[in-house]
Amino acid sequence: MLNQLRPALVLLIAMTAVTGLAYPLAITGIAGAVLPARAAGSLIERDGKVVGSSLIGQSFTGAGYFHGRPSATTAADPADAAKAVPAPYNAANSAGSNLGPTSAALAERVKGELDTLKAENPNQPVPVDLVTTSGSGLDPDVSPEAALFQVPRVARARNLPEDKLRELVTSRVEGRTLGLLGEPRVNVLALNLALDDLAKR
Amino acid sequence: MTLNGWMQIALYCAVVLALVKPLGLYMTRVFNGERNLLSPVLAPIERGLYRVSGIDARQEQTWLGYAGAMVVFNVAGFVLLYAILRLQAVLPLNPADQAAVAPDLAFNTSTSFVTNTNWQSYGGETTLSYLSQMLGLTHQNFVSAASGIAVAVALIRGFARASTRTLGSFWVDMTRATLYVLLPLCVLIALFLVSQGMPQTLQPYIEATTLEGAKQTIAVGPVASQVAIKMLGTNGGGFFNANAAHPFENPTALSNFVQIVSIFALGAALTNVFGRMVGDERQGWAILAAMGLLFVVGVAVTYWAEANAHGVLSNLGLTGGNMEGKEVRFGIAASALFAVITTAASCGAVNAMHDSFTALGGLIPLLNMQLGEVIIGGVGAGLYGMLIFVVVAIFVAGLMVGRTPEYLGKKIEAKEVKMAMLGILCLPLMMLGFTALATVVPAGLAGPANAGPHGFSEILYAYTSAAANNGSAFGGLTANTLFYNTTLAIGMLVGRFFVKIPVLAIAGSLAAKKRVPASAGTFPTHGGLFIGLLVGVVLIMGGLTFFPSLALGPVVEHLAGAAGQTFATGG
C-alpha cells in the first residue's frame, strides 16, 4: 500500500488543481466574457437599482400586483437564531414544504389559500399551482390560468379594464420550448413590471 | 397524463439511445489507451500527470492492487475535503462569510462526496463558501465519478481477458476517465447551462429591492461548472438547497432536458463499452434492454401517480395533478421523469421535492434505489451493479438446468457467486437495519417532519438513499443531527466500498480463468430469454427483500390517503 501513497497524494493535488480550480475558473472567465448578464444571475434593473432576477420569484402581497405561488422558504428568527420563521421567496435559503400527501398541515394550508382565492374570484376554478408551494420556494412562474385567474382582483385594485389586463397576460405567456419541452408559463416579475408600465401610460 | 408529456418522455429515451454508440466507441478507445479525438490536446497533460506522480502507465495491477489504490486515493480525498470544509472560514472566496462546517456535518458531507452519494445534510447557499463548492465539491464530483467508471472498466476487463492476473491500472483508468471523458463534456455542458441563465460568478450574493420595496438577498455563485459534473458524474449534490428545483440550478425546460440526458449518458454508454470490450456488442445491448424495461415501467407508474391529484388536493376539488413541491416550468411530466431517472441512476439531484410526491409516485424512486440502482445506475456503479445481478441470474439459470453456469465463456463458480451475494446483501443490511434502529431510538424519531406512515417513509428513504449512494431525500427529515449524520455516513461507506471491493474480487477471479469455447448447450446471453431472466432476478431479489418495508410506508399511506385520512404531527 505504501508505494501507492505518492501517486495517490500527487494525483489528488494535481486533479484538485485541474478540476477544482482551473476548470471552474476557466468557465467563470469564458461565461463572464461571452454571456456576462446571464453569468451574473439575469438581474433586472430599474432606474439603476437591482429589483430582482428574471429567474427568481419574489413575494407579491398587494392586490394591485399579480401574485406568485405560495412559498415555503424560511429565515432565521431575528429573536432566536436557532428557530426558523416563514419568509416567502427567501432567495438565500431555497426550500420546499416537504409536506406529504397525507399531511394534515398540507390540507389545512391548501384550504386556507383556497378560501382566500375563491373569495377573490368566485367565478373560475382555482388553478392548482396557486395553492401549492414550489420545490424551490422561488418559482418565478405561474401557469397562464393562474395569472388569468387574478385578473379581476388586479383590475379592481388598479382601476383598469379586465380586457386590457387579460390581453397583457396573454402577451406574456411563454410556450413550451420547441413546442415540446416543459409547460406554458407566465413570469410573474416580468408581468408585474409590464403592468407598472401599463399603469403609467 | 397528456400526449405532450409522453412525447417528452419518448424524446428523452430516443436521445439517450442515440448517444450510446458514439459515446461507447469513444470511451472504449480511451480505456484501451488508443488514440482518439482529444489525444493531441490531452495526451501531453496525461503524460505530465503520470510523470509528477511517479506512475508507470504500462504497469498493471492485480485486483488487490487496484482496490488498494482506489481505497488510498479515496481516503486521501476524504481527508482533503474534510479539511477544506472545516477551514472554509479562514480560506479565501467566502463572500457570504460562511462559518466552518461543524465536525459531524463535515464528516457526513466528505463521506457523501467521496462515495458519490452527495447526500445533502448541508444546505448549499447557507453553509458552504465558493471555495468549498469548487475546490471541495466540484473536484470530488469528478474523481468519485471517475473511480466508479474505473472499477466498472476493471470488471469489464475481468470478463474480456483470460488467464491473466491483472486488470489494468487504477491510476491510469481514473486519470483517463477524468481528463478524456468527464472534463471535456463538462466544459460544453457548463457553457450551455450558462446560456440558459445559470449563474457562473464569484461575485457576492446580490441585494435587490423588490417591486413592493422589500429587500431580497439572492444567492449566486460558480453554479454552472458544478452542476455540469453533478449531472454527468451522477453525483447529484446541489449547489443550492433546493437542488435542480432552484431556478438558478435549472433555469429552463431545455436546461432540464440537457441535465437529465447527462445523468444517463455515460451509464448507458458503458453498456456499449462492455459489449465492445468483450467482443460482442449484443451483450451490451441485452443489458441495456433489461435496464430500459425496468425504467419505462417506473416512469409510467410515477407519471400516472403524479398526474392525479392526491386525496388532500382532490378532496378540495382541485385538479391538474400534484403540483406541491413542483415547479411550473417543468410541470408534472418532466418532474416525474426526472425523479425516476435520478433514482434509477445514482444521481440524487431533484427538480421537484420527492417528499411531496403521492404515495405511489414516491414509491418508485424508493424502489429504484432498493433494487441497487442497476437501471443505468451511477457512472460505472450501475454497470458493475447490474453485472453482479447477471452473475446471480446465470447461476440461477445453471441451477435450473443442472449445468455449470458460464457467462461470456467464463465459468461462474462458488467464489463469484459468494462475492456477488456479499455485494447485494450489504445494501439491505444498511437500508433496513438503520431504518429499524432509527424508528426505535429517540434521536431517530426526532427526524421526520411528517406524521404517520409518511414519517416512516422519510426515514426509510434516507437510509436507502445513503446506502445506494443516491443522495436524494424525502427532504422533510431533519438529517443534520449527530445521529443521522453519523449513521447515514456509515451507510454510504458500506454501500460504496462493500460493493466495489467484492466487484474487483470477482473481476480478478474472472480474469484468471480460461475461456471455455461456446457449445450447443451454452445459454445465449444476448436474447429475450436472458433479458427476461435478468429482469426477473432483479425484481424478485428486490421484492423479497424490501416489500415489507414498502408495505409499512408508501403502501399504507396510499390506502390511508385513498380513505381520506390525514396525519397531524404531535398528535
From TrEMBL, chain A:
<keyword id="KW-0633">Potassium transport</keyword>
<comment type="similarity">
    <text>Belongs to the KdpC family.</text>
</comment>
<keyword id="KW-0813">Transport</keyword>
<comment type="subunit">
    <text>The system is composed of three essential subunits: KdpA, KdpB and KdpC.</text>
</comment>
<comment type="function">
    <text>Part of the high-affinity ATP-driven potassium transport (or Kdp) system, which catalyzes the hydrolysis of ATP coupled with the electrogenic transport of potassium into the cytoplasm. This subunit acts as a catalytic chaperone that increases the ATP-binding affinity of the ATP-hydrolyzing subunit KdpB by the formation of a transient KdpB/KdpC/ATP ternary complex.</text>
</comment>
<keyword id="KW-0630">Potassium</keyword>
<dbReference type="InterPro" id="IPR003820">
    <property type="entry name" value="KdpC"/>
</dbReference>
<dbReference type="GO" id="GO:0008556">
    <property type="term" value="F:P-type potassium transmembrane transporter activity"/>
</dbReference>
<keyword id="KW-0812">Transmembrane</keyword>
<keyword id="KW-0547">Nucleotide-binding</keyword>
<keyword id="KW-0472">Membrane</keyword>
<keyword id="KW-1003">Cell membrane</keyword>
<dbReference type="Pfam" id="PF02669">
    <property type="entry name" value="KdpC"/>
</dbReference>
<keyword id="KW-0067">ATP-binding</keyword>
<dbReference type="GO" id="GO:0005886">
    <property type="term" value="C:plasma membrane"/>
</dbReference>
<protein>
    <recommendedName>
        <fullName>Potassium-transporting ATPase KdpC subunit</fullName>
    </recommendedName>
</protein>
<dbReference type="GO" id="GO:0005524">
    <property type="term" value="F:ATP binding"/>
</dbReference>
<keyword id="KW-0406">Ion transport</keyword>
<keyword id="KW-1133">Transmembrane helix</keyword>
From TrEMBL, chain B:
<comment type="function">
    <text>Part of the high-affinity ATP-driven potassium transport (or Kdp) system, which catalyzes the hydrolysis of ATP coupled with the electrogenic transport of potassium into the cytoplasm. This subunit binds the extracellular potassium ions and delivers the ions to the membrane domain of KdpB through an intramembrane tunnel.</text>
</comment>
<keyword id="KW-1133">Transmembrane helix</keyword>
<feature type="transmembrane region" description="Helical">
    <location>
        <begin position="422"/>
        <end position="445"/>
    </location>
</feature>
<comment type="subunit">
    <text>The system is composed of three essential subunits: KdpA, KdpB and KdpC.</text>
</comment>
<dbReference type="GO" id="GO:0005886">
    <property type="term" value="C:plasma membrane"/>
</dbReference>
<keyword id="KW-0630">Potassium</keyword>
<feature type="transmembrane region" description="Helical">
    <location>
        <begin position="63"/>
        <end position="85"/>
    </location>
</feature>
<keyword id="KW-0813">Transport</keyword>
<keyword id="KW-0812">Transmembrane</keyword>
<dbReference type="Pfam" id="PF03814">
    <property type="entry name" value="KdpA"/>
</dbReference>
<comment type="similarity">
    <text>Belongs to the KdpA family.</text>
</comment>
<feature type="transmembrane region" description="Helical">
    <location>
        <begin position="257"/>
        <end position="274"/>
    </location>
</feature>
<feature type="transmembrane region" description="Helical">
    <location>
        <begin position="177"/>
        <end position="195"/>
    </location>
</feature>
<dbReference type="GO" id="GO:0030955">
    <property type="term" value="F:potassium ion binding"/>
</dbReference>
<feature type="transmembrane region" description="Helical">
    <location>
        <begin position="286"/>
        <end position="305"/>
    </location>
</feature>
<protein>
    <recommendedName>
        <fullName>Potassium-transporting ATPase potassium-binding subunit</fullName>
    </recommendedName>
</protein>
<feature type="transmembrane region" description="Helical">
    <location>
        <begin position="137"/>
        <end position="156"/>
    </location>
</feature>
<feature type="transmembrane region" description="Helical">
    <location>
        <begin position="482"/>
        <end position="507"/>
    </location>
</feature>
<keyword id="KW-1003">Cell membrane</keyword>
<dbReference type="InterPro" id="IPR004623">
    <property type="entry name" value="KdpA"/>
</dbReference>
<keyword id="KW-0633">Potassium transport</keyword>
<feature type="transmembrane region" description="Helical">
    <location>
        <begin position="528"/>
        <end position="547"/>
    </location>
</feature>
